[in-house]
Each structure stands twice: as structure tokens, then as C-alpha cells.
Fold these 3 entries.
Entry 1:
Amino acid sequence: MSPNHSLYGQASAFADELTLLLSRSLPDAPAAIASISGDRVVVQPEHPVHLYIGGAKRATLGVRFRCELDSRGDWLAVENSSFDVRADVDRTPVLRFEYIRQANRAPAAHVQVHAHRGALSLLLAQANHHKAHDMSALHIPVGGARFRPCIEDVIQMLAEEFGFDTLGTWRQAVAEGRESWRRKQVRAVVRDWLSARSSRRPRLARLHRHPTSPRRRRRPHRRTHPLVTLGA
């Protein structure tokens, strides 16, 4: 695959991939679209994905990617993303998977759980946490920028842990999507490594031209004559 310098073009292709994944995994899934937002492009379903249990709608899945081109202006990069599960009985998310590329204090990739646990609240209060009774104030790190959970991981969790209704092709769709995601991340890691390596070369060249310590002078090589043995 060669780089496409059109941000919107790459984001639209990504939206098509997301549409295919959702349509093969969850019933009544909406199509994903790419929409321009300033100098970025947002990729998300047309509306939150409805989640069913036994055919009855019980929750929604929100999916959103805010995209830009990478630092070289070649490849699509995710500036931030969020996946959130919300029960119909409450507008507050049950949990959120978030990624913020330029995160400052919180881990770039993290999970926030909206729940209550007495022992945890007590620990946070003892540590003088500013939101001791709000478990969602904790940003639980997950995998870092390159190996964070993908949307396929979330769909598998919804199917196997929550028991939401799925389509018969969901396992294959998730496996194929996850494999594609991991390959893209590995390629991105390699590009990052090559870029960092090339940026160090000029510095290394300067160090070779101007070493910090004087070189030792080699002593002249003294030639020795081989031992000659005379036969009788």
C-alpha cells in the first residue's frame, strides 16, 4: 500500500473498513462516515451502535476516531479515539476506552470504569485523591500508543463478557480486523524506528569527525624476521 496524501481519502477508506466490521459483527449496525472537522477528519458511525440482549435494545456503543496525517504527511494517524458503552437506564457510560495522542498527565491509552467500590474509594481518600469517590477518575493504562486495545477487542468483550447479541460472522470479522490492525501498528513502529535512526545519523557523523577524546597513535609495526631452521 502506498501513502495517499489525501487525509479525507484515507479516512473514507478507514470508514469503509469500520462499516464492514460493524455490519459483520453486530445486528442493525449503522454505516460509518468520515466528516471534515477543521483540519482533521472524524470517523464514526452515523449514530451510536445499538446493543441488544435477546432482541431487546439494552445499551449503545459509541465509536469515534479523530484523524490527521502523520508527522511526514503521508499516512493516516489517529489523534484521539473513544469507545464507550452506555446502558439505556443511565446516560453515564459504563466504561470508556480512550486514546489521546498528545496526552499530558494521563496515560495516552487508558480505560475508565464508571462504578463504585468502597475499598477503592477508601484508598483514594487516604491518598487525598481529588475525586476519591469517583472510580472513573482513574485512567487505567492499556498498551500505550501503538499497542492499545482496538475496536475489535471491544466487540469481542461485548460478545463474550456482556453477552450482547452478535451475528454469526462476528468472530471471523474480529479476527481479520484485529490482524489488519496489528500489521498496521507494526509497520508504524518500524517507520518510527527508521525515522529515529535516520535523525541520529547526522549527530553520529559529527561525533566521528570531532571525537570527544584524542585518538591513540598507533605504534609503528616492527617487522620481525622468521626463524630459519637449517637442515643437516
Entry 2:
Amino acid sequence: MHTTAPVSRRAVLGGLSVGALTVGGASRAAAATPQAGAPVLPDPSTVTASDPADLGVLEAASLLQARRLSSRELTQACLDRITARNAPVNAWVRTYPELALRLADAADTRLSSAACGSLGAAPLLAGVPVGLKGLYAVKGLPLTASSKTLDGSSGIFPVNIAAGDSTVWARLKAAGMPLLGHTQMSEFAFSTGTPQTGNPWDTTKSPGGSSGGSAAALAARMTPAATGSDTGGSLRLPSSACGTTTIKATYGLISTYGVLPLEWSYDNAGPMARSVADVALLLSYLAGADDHDAATLAGRPPAFYPTSPTPGPKPLSGKRIGISNSPSDGSLSAGILAVLARVKGELAALGASLVPVTSPVDPTTTTAGMALVAEVKTFHSQLYPARAAYYTPFVAEILALYEGENRWPPLRRSRSLPRAVHGRVEPRLRRRHARRGAPADADR
């Protein structure tokens, strides 16, 4: 197993004035890309998009691997599409044209070397551009979570610059993906909308949130791939609202090292694209153990997830799919209920067993709600109330409310602490980390 020297989680997320968000160092992500069992790409002769910016991940990979398209051409097409379409949508916090084209040129060199046999096979994602949600650390670039508390616009507090790469970006960079930019999100991922971003299908409507910028960028075909995060729906809701695709993976399948947290006991990183096959390929490069994130150390994912259905008329045979009980209070429209009924019929026809599922108790009334308050308060104590005036009113109101929730136990007594991004680690917990193989001063 490839390893690197352990690096403090605090050392990656940038340098806030209180010193609790500094992130640095490389993650365990740059291992050689496995090719065994790789999915079969589409025949390049069948890929007919007239503009490269319209390509999906697998389609782009097919043309890139066949050298019928260069990464520079594809990346430039995406940058041109952003210029043409982003203004009314506002899906991007910032873009990085020079960096994107530099990484595209590196991918082209890698693909050419692989084609002529001087190197091993290039990763299937090599040359395919990607956008990152605005809470993923990229060394040397702003890490601001769509918040004026971190973006330098206050004129008082400096812009927060990441001192190292998040594991997700390190893995995508190792796979050869050019970075187009950081996408918009609700401030610190606090809400299920992204108010500064319009839905490309109707810009007066919400793209959902908190990963709304990534979903909007995909729906407007400004990028073939993106990342998001999900604590209570923030990958799934915007994908639904914008007609794109995602997967909220099992907790711990994808590292959240170098990702600004909302509630680290529930935060999940995840891929976003325009098809299930594209998301599956992205997941193949993101999943797996990370020495910086103890939650990822259990299990071993496959080298590649399938990008096509099992052959035969019943590809879902043997699969059990939970179907949540539909509310009976009339809150769902007849149109939505009709779509749900149709989907259930299609799943059953494909061989799946449908299992009724009763929704659990509202988590805000359980210990999960206690953890939410404790973890949010702990992370934002670096910024609130010192920068209270620079939060959006919505988030400031939440933090003011949580400020009065003193009955919750302090986070430093929580077993979730190894995933924290702050500076308060008790010596007792330091010793426990050291026994698990972490350095004594690690704050994971």
C-alpha cells in the first residue's frame, strides 16, 4: 500500500487568523492508477458531439484515449462554454484557465506517451476536465466555501489560501484531470439551496444545494465532471433539481481530508456528472483508504465500479431497493407521485425486489442533532462571532442560535474528534491517536 508521511488535517485547509485552518502536505492519492478490470469505453466512432464541451466523461475519455481529441481542445471548449453561459447561471466562484490548460497539456503528453508505448496505460480520466465544489482544498488556491468570511472581500480579513491538496483533488490530479475552477455552494454548505446561482433550466429557480454550483455547471454543460459533498442531501438535492447524476457513497468510502466541514461525523464527499456511468467511473478513482482519514480505512473497494448494466433482461435481479413510504398529507403533487409509480414499475420489471422503508425519526431530535450543534459550533468558533458581520444573515442566525445551545456536551469529549478540523485536542486523545498509528500531534 502506498503511504506518505502523515500530515495534520489542520495543515491543509488554509491559514485563518486564529490559526486553526492551516492545511498542508500531500495525501495518499498518487499511487499508480489500476487498469485491471477497467470499463470498456464507447467506440470513438460512435461519439458524435459537435462541440467537445457537450461530451460526457466516458465519451470524452474514449476520444482522448484514441487521440481523436486533445485535452487542450476539450478544456478550452469547456472554458469557452463557461464564458458563454456562466453569467446568468453563476455556477462558478472562480475559474483557473491557465492552470486548467497547463494540466491539459500535461495530460496530452501523458496520453501521447502511453499511446506510443513509452509509459503504461494512461488513466481513463486523463485529460477530462473537472470542477470542484468550493470547499475542496487545492494547494495555493483560495478555499472560501462561498463565504465572505474567507474570501477577502471584507477588506479586513485576508483570503483563505489552502496550503495543501484535499485527497479528492490529489486523486483526480493524479489521474490527469484538468481543474476548471471552484463551483458555487451555499455558504459553508448550510442550506439546501444555492441562492446566488440559477438553475440552468430556468434561472429564476433554485439549482438546489448545497452543491448547487456543481450541478448547475453540469446541467449547462460547462464541465463533464464535478464534485460535491453531502451531509443531509447536498449531492442528491441539486442533482435532482438540475437533472444531473450523483451518488452519495457509503460514509467513509471517499476521504473528506482537506474538505471544509459542515458536520464531519456525517459529511460525505462525492462525484457528480450527467450519467450514472460517468459517476461510476469517477467513483472508481475517488474511493479507497486514505492515511489522513481514519473513517476510510475499513474495507477495500473494487479497482473499478461497473459502468454498464449486468447483461440480460433482468439486470437488477437479486438487488433489494428500499422504497420510502410516500407522505399521505398531500405534499407531493400528482405528477411526482406518477413519476414515483413509474420508477417503481421499471425497477420491478428489471428484476429488483422493492422493500418498503419507513423514514427514521427527524435526526435533529436525536443525538445526531446534538452532534450537529457541537461540531458546527466548534468549527465556526474560529470565525464566529469575530466575523459575524460577514456571514450571510441565514448562517449568522443559525450560529447565533447555536451559540445559546450550551447544554450540548463539548465536542472535545466526542469520539468523532479525529475527523475534526480545529486546534483543540486533549493529550488523552493524542495518545489514543498515536496508538492507532497517527503522529502524536495529528488532528485528523
Entry 3:
Amino acid sequence: MAEPTVIMEVERVMNLVEGFRWKKVKEEIVLDEIHLELKKEVAVSGTKAVYMEVERVMNLVQGFGWEKVKEEVVADEMHITVKKKSAAAEKIGAAIGPT
């Protein structure tokens, strides 16, 4: 079975997390990986509830091969960056060439 395209991979994640008010900040291809940054407004940073939101997202997307790269609180927003290795991304990255 062929690997889904990069667009479909990102859409799948967004379909899973948009209901929890996460928004896409940025997506990029780095070598053979898709990097996706998500954000969500939070009421109080540093609370257990904020970090439970991150765990909720990871529980939804890990089954599709995504891994957490970093998480941080910026002002009143929680940011998560996740990545996934992808043959489709590798082809696109090779076509773009070195940056």
C-alpha cells in the first residue's frame, strides 16, 4: 500500500485535534520528516490541565506514527511540535534540495 501524501497526513492530524481547539501554526518538510506545529489558547499556564491537553493530542496522533518534538507555553498559548517520518516527505525534500 502506498504511503499517504504529506497533505493527507497533516489533514488527518488536524481532523483529530481541531475539535479540541488546536490550530495549525506551521508545517514544514525537513529531510524525510513532516514537522507540524500546533497551538491552543490556555487559561493558566503550568497547570496539570495544560499538560493533560498535550497528552490528549499525543494519544490521538501517536497511533499514526507522530512523535512529539517539543512543547512550550508562549504567553497564553500552548505550542506542540510533532514530527513524522514519511516517504512522501523524503521525495519532496529530495526534489527541493538542500536548504
